[in-house]
């Protein structure tokens, strides 16, 4: 036997108000008194009433679709983002539409604008490195499309951005390695035309310089934030006898590649080589040895981005401004780093 789903008429009848009043509550209108609003919200919860999104969209000229624009090969990162977005969007009645693209494409802006129009989106959340495009942000602004950028640098008005303070995060890692007695440290960068890569590289090198330990050019290998480039960079840094005692990689994926190369070369981690990364994705705690890393709170960033974009869509700019826009990464110490012998 089919159970009849509650309708807006059922809510209105139980609350002894009009359908228009229930609709106003659903759409966040300020024209409904607080006491009446609370009564209607309780009845909605008691009845487990789920508004029909298509009907809501027709009534409010909204689609209740939010887009995600990204060019990031790390599926674990995308999963973390979606978890944070869905946690907020599902409670507010919004659906997500994803759009992978190529950051370096000459048609990036045209492609993204076409996606927004074709999907009839109410707003978009742009992930790094695409979020670093000033041209795309300007185009979205000019076309009147609400957007929020997730980035490693403060690139926009605070209503339109959520920032991970990567520079401060990597300084924690530099202090950790030096505190363990490491004085010969290698670094695997990400693509240096990405702000996130330059923030981490400059932050780490700056911290070491402050401690009197600048990284020589021979201890820097340039990666692409993926596993394959991590393998290549690890071979570069570990070839020969004069290898570093520690390696910090721009991502956990490249740090995992360093662990593999070290194993192949018979280098014990962490006894003969400390290895650390950045992100704290799900693999970091599951590989052997478990990876010391900087935890970037991606899910928290995505939740903040969702709060901001929904506030922007619903013309609540003051609320969007109040939503925090900076998150702080934190050092997670595991088994892949240890005291350098003889330094105690």
TrEMBL record:
This is Transcriptional regulator, LacI family protein. Residues 6-60 form the HTH lacI-type domain. CDD domains: HTH_LacI (cd01392), PBP1_SalR (cd01545). One of its GO terms (molecular function) is transcription cis-regulatory region binding. Keywords: DNA-binding, Transcription, Transcription regulation. It holds the Pfam family Peripla_BP_3. It comes from the Bacteria.
């Amino acid at each position: 036997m089919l159970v009849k789903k509650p309708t807006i008429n059922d809510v209105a009848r139980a609350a002894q108000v009009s359908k228009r009043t229930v609709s106003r509550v659903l759409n966040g209108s300020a024209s409904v008194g607080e006491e009446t609003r609370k009564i209607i919200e309780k009845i909605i919860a008691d009845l487990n009433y789920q508004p029909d999104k298509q009907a809501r969209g027709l009534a409010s000229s909204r689609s209740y679709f939010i887009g995600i624009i990204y060019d990031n090969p790390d599926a674990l990162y995308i999963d973390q983002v979606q978890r944070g977005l869905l946690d907020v969007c599902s409670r507010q009645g919004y659906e997500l539409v994803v759009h992978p693209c190529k950051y370096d494409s000459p048609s990036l802006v045209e492609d993204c604008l076409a996606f927004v129009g074709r999907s009839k989106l109410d707003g978009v959340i742009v992930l790094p490195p695409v979020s670093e495009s000033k041209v795309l942000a300007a185009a979205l602004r000019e076309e009147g499309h609400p957007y929020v950028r997730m980035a490693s640098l403060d690139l926009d008005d605070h209503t339109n951005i959520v920032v991970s303070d990567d520079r401060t995060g990597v300084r924690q890692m530099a202090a950790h390695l030096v505190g363990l007695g490491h004085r010969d440290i290698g670094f695997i960068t990400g693509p240096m035309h990405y702000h996130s890569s330059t923030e981490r590289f400059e932050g780490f090198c700056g911290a070491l310089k402050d401690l009197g330990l600048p990284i020589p050019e021979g201890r820097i290998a340039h990666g692409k934030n993926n596993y394959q480039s991590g393998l290549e960079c690890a071979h570069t840094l570990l070839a020969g006898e004069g290898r570093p005692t520690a390696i910090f990689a721009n991502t956990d994926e490249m740090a995992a590649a360093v662990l593999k190369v070290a194993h192949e070369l018979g280098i014990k981690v962490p006894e003969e080589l400390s290895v650390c990364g950045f992100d704290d994705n799900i693999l970091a705690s599951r590989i052997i040895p478990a990876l010391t890393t900087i935890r970037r709170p991606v899910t928290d960033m995505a939740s903040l981005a969702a709060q901001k974009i929904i506030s922007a869509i619903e013309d609540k700019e003051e609320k969007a401004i109040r939503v925090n826009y900076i998150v702080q990464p934190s050092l997670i110490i595991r088994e892949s780093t240890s005291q350098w012998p003889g330094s105690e």
